[in-house]
Write a structure and sequence with these properties.
Blueprint lengths: L2 H5 E2 L1 H8 L3 H8 L17 E2 H18 L3 E2 L4 E2 L6
Antiparallel strand pairs: 1-2, 3-4
Helix pairs in contact: 2-3
Length: about 80
């Protein structure tokens, strides 16, 4: 694995990081405010690792401040990240 591969995450890596299944990751990456993919088509999108982590941490802080989860319009779920 080269350096660039470690810096780019697909939905699988995001799922591993957040502990979410593929369907929940799909909802997450389509949220308003989630960083846009830096490359790839719909099935092969990749995001910068640091941008994803920064977004998730900001959501976690916001959730803690408001005592709420993230909503996709149908349901809410908490965003938690590994330290």
């Amino acid at each position: 694995m080269n350096r660039l591969d470690r810096e780019l995450w697909g939905t699988e890596e995001i799922g591993e990081y957040t502990g979410r299944k593929k369907s929940a990751v799909s909802v997450l990456v389509n949220q308003t405010g989630f960083p846009g993919p830096c490359m790839g088509s719909h099935r092969c999108r990749r995001w910068f690792r640091d941008s994803v982590i920064a977004y998730l941490r900001s959501q976690e802080r916001m959730n803690a401040a408001h005592g709420t989860g993230v909503s996709d319009g149908r349901r809410s779920f908490r965003v938690s990240v590994k330290a």
